[in-house]
Amino acid sequence: MATYKVQPRGVRLLRVHNAVTNEVVADYVPQNKLIEYLPEWELTPNDVKNIPHQLAGKQKKVKGLRFELLGTITGMDKSHP
User: Which of 6, 25, 50, 76 has its CA 20 to 30 A from that of 64?
Assistant: First the structure.
């Protein structure tokens, strides 16, 4: 029987917009680094978990921010700086 190696899922790259003014707050930010890249927005780990819901259209914004998916980096593990 053939065995397969599980491929890493990768990290989402996001563009972050202010939901009120529609200006770009940050560009090409990995989802796992949002809390440290945007400290002035005071994002919590629970807010980061809600980002896929906003990307899917179930929510309009997360803490006043709107996210746009730019792509994924598949060769990078989640601990990469």
Answer: 76
What sign for the dihedral angle of Cα 58, 79, 38, 24?
A: negative
The answer to whether the Cα torsion of 71, 37, 31, 17 is positive or negative is negative
> Which pTM does this prediction carry?
0.76
Place of tokens 């989402």: 12
Mean pLDDT, each 10-residue run in order, the chain (81 residues): 72 93 93 91 92 91 93 68 52
